[in-house]
Design brief:
The protein has 361 residues and is α/β, with parallel strands linked by helices. Helices cover 35% and strands 16% of the residues. It has a seven-stranded mixed β-sheet with strand order 2-10-9-8-5-3-4, with helices on both faces. A three-stranded antiparallel β-sheet has the order 11-12-14. Strands 1-13 form a two-stranded parallel sheet. A hairpin with a 4-residue loop joins β6 and β7. Bound molecules: pyridoxal-5'-phosphate (PLP).
Length: 361
């Protein structure tokens, strides 16, 4: 069996090296005679996995001691609710920017818990760009300001963060985290479902400035309380042990083999460059996102004709380039090229696009 190049937006590819290591350790992890899946989450063996993963995360993202790193369950969607329940507790207000489907969902969720103001939206243009903001629309007394750093479905990303003054910036970084270095100090909270770029589905990473951890709203489920989760070191209840273990292997791979986040960024820029350069010159395909907002990790494009798009996706699948369909809500194509997608995968895709164009123009 040969492995395919999987362009899915998530769950997505994991580094082959990591999968091999996990397979090697599946029956006996580190000589303890059991799999990580079977280990007590309070055992010494798991402690070692847990703390080394957290330390590596801190090292790679240069997270200092004023921040807490939490390994939670429930996906990014659960954070859409946890963020307001934990943070909208002083003035009951938050500002949101709508830049895609997920930021809309986050906003709708927050509206259940307080006064939410939409301070920018690019919905009218089909989320093809990051909205332009006017600083005077921001509320100085908002408890936080929420953005989605990379819009997985539409293929756009923030190139410059908004200046929110003293209002903590909260970011959904699900399809952004670990794709490049990040200045964590600019954020109050960063949260991410791990299944895009860090681990299998089931782990949610939350990086939060410690001074923002306080009493949540009284009805907040205990497992969604940042305070409880921080005090119990993410182990109030059983954490997603297996996913944390794989996340550790992924971080190790980035550190030891890919040259850290700087190295990964360089490769990611090369990969995205190959695709965007081809799209610039193509007579059949065109990119969906505005030039100035194009994502490093999700490249959206279309031929403009549904039948042609469908035949492209089908043809690509036949040669081992799979899951190139756009999100069901937008159609077209999307190539998600996270860290684990090798450069050869992108080269093969561009080659196939070139060939398809020749045959279909
Ligand atoms: C995938 C994704 C989500 C949803 O994540 P779940 O873990 O499935 O809840 C939210 N936001 C962004 C930016 C995503 O890419």
């Amino acid at each position: 069996m040969s492995r395919v190049y999987n362009f899915s937006a998530g769950p997505s590819m994991l580094p082959e090296r990591v999968l091999r290591q996990a397979a090697y350790e599946i029956l006996d992890c580190g000589g303890c005679g059991q799999s990580v899946m079977e280990m007590s989450h309070r055992s010494e063996e798991f402690d070692e996995i847990f703390y080394s993963t957290k330390e590596r995360m801190r090292r790679l993202l240069k997270i200092n001691d004023s921040y807490e790193v939490l390994f939670l369950q429930g996906g990014a969607s659960t954070q859409f609710a946890a963020v307001p329940m934990n943070l909208m507790v002083h003035n009951g207000k938050a500002d949101y920017v709508l830049s895609g489907n997920f930021s809309e969902k986050a906003c709708r969720e927050a509206e259940k818990y307080g006064d939410v103001k939409i301070v920018g939206s690019s919905k009218e243009c089909g989320y093809a760009k990051i909205p332009t903001l006017r600083k005077r629309d921001f509320r100085g007394d908002a408890d936080y300001f929420h953005i989605c750093l990379n819009n997985t479905i539409f293929g756009t990303e923030w190139k410059k963060l908004p200046d929110t003054g003293n209002v903590p910036l909260v970011a959904d970084a699900s399809s952004y985290i670990l794709s490049r270095p990040m200045d964590v100090g600019k954020f109050g909270v960063i949260y991410a479902g791990a299944q895009k770029n860090a681990a299998p589905a089931g782990l949610t990473i939350v990086i939060i400035r410690k001074d923002l951890i306080g009493e949540p709203m009284s009805f907040t489920p205990t497992v969604l309380s940042y305070k409880v989760m921080s005090e119990s070191d993410s182990r109030y209840n059983t954490p997603p042990c297996w996913c944390i273990y794989i996340c550790g292997l992924v971080l190790k791979w980035i550190e030891a083999e890919m040259g850290g986040l700087e190295g990964i960024e360089e490769i990611n820029r090369e990969k995205a460059g190959l695709l965007y350069d081809f799209l610039e010159s193509s007579k059949l395909f065109k990119g969906c996102a505005d030039r100035g907002c194009r994502s490093l990790t999700n490249v959206t494009f279309t031929s403009g004709d549904r039948a042609t798009d469908e035949s492209f996706i089908k043809g690509a699948g036949k040669v081992g380039l799979v899951n190139l369909n756009g999100h069901r809500s937008v159609g077209g194509m999307r190539a998600s090229i996270y860290n684990a997608m090798p450069k050869e995968g992108v080269e093969r895709l561009v080659e196939f696009m070139r060939k398809f164009e020749k045959e279909n123009l």
